[in-house]
Specification:
5 helices; 5 strands; alpha/beta; Rossmann fold; 5-stranded parallel beta sheet; 123 residues
């Protein structure tokens, strides 16, 4: 059975790029365009991993992680942050909230995302 990955991201180009790559690699990908939708999908599908943007409409990534930490099942799901910023204060906050890894949008290629996913949850 394919591992489920939830991509919570509001940039359409990033969604298309990552969704296509995840499917090529054999993962089951679902998309949420903001944190509110992301939490709803998480509760329904219980993904194996979440790729999470920080700056989004309605609810951002930090707020999503705070809500996940209030739920004993959701807080077990590993998170990889995908953000435009790599500021140390944001990295520290993300790690403190449970993020396992971090990618900066302008500096990664899709294979890097796949490598980090494999490292956390396998193929």
């Amino acid at each position: 059975m394919a591992k489920k990955i939830l991509l919570i991201e509001d940039e359409q180009l990033m969604i298309e790029l990552l969704e296509r790559r995840l499917i090529q690699e054999g993962y089951e990908a679902s998309i949420a365009k903001d944190g509110v939708e992301g939490l709803e999908k998480m509760r329904k599908t219980m993904p194996d991993l979440i790729l999470l943007d920080i700056i989004m409409p309605r609810m951002g990534g930090f707020e999503v992680m705070e809500k996940m930490n209030e739920d004993k099942e959701l807080k077990k799901i590993p998170i990889i942050i995908i953000s435009n910023s790599g500021q140390p204060v944001e990295l520290d906050r993300a790690k403190n909230l449970g993020a396992r890894d971090w990618l900066i949008k302008t500096e990664f290629n899709p294979q890097e995302v796949i490598d980090k996913i494999i490292k956390l949850i396998g193929k």
